[in-house]
Predict the 3D structure of the following.
Amino acid sequence: MAGSATRVTPSSQERFLARQAARRRADRARWTRPLLALAAIAVLAAVAAWVVWSSTLLTSRQVAVVGLHRITAEQVREVAAVPMDVPLAKVDLGAIERRVQTLPVVRGATASRSWPHTIRIAVEERRAAVAVPGSDGFLLVDFDAVAFETVGAPPEGVPQLRANPSGLQADTVRAVVTILEAVPIGISGKIAEVVAASADDVALVLVDGRQIVWGSAVDSARKADVLRALLKRPGAVYDVSAPGAPAVRGAI
């Protein structure tokens, strides 16, 4: 009939070819999407690496120091010599720690990055165990038996060491600090003086005049346990040098 539209129906072959083309497009999309994602990740990683390692966005601009009691932050910053305006990731933290640990009063130091612009240095100062009198003041010795500072007077709570006048031996100092570290907490702050004739003959004199005969540093933990019970009894001298046979003598 004239003027009527004629519908063209695709043949089975054409339908097959169309399905094949659609399948190929889908396959390409499945492969392309992961590749594009990987490419995007690679670009982002490259940008992040540039920002961290090469740009001026994350550079060292200040140094924070914590954990100080005896020295100042400025003293630590001076010896730490942290390079400024350097990408934080490139700052050698180990080198900073080693430089700070050259300060006699510093027992340990830990350097870390505090993004975006700060190097943080945590300092552990030496803790005085005993004060050794000398010609120019008192030499402070820590619990590692390291002499680290000379002061005019012992700090509060740090006992003086009275040793053999013929000369103070290193083994005696080590014995004294080992004993002081083992002393019960309630007693450690009450020690006025440590009398050490030798490493095997150490006694502690309390601020109230009582004396604790400790002997050597051997079995110090056990001696401390015995002392806790012994101090409940009145006396002037508490002998724990032989912890299996302790004694209390005299009256204060």
Summary: The CA atoms of residues 64 and 120 lie 5 Å apart. The first strand starts at residue 62 and ends at 66. The chain is about 35% helix and 25% strand.
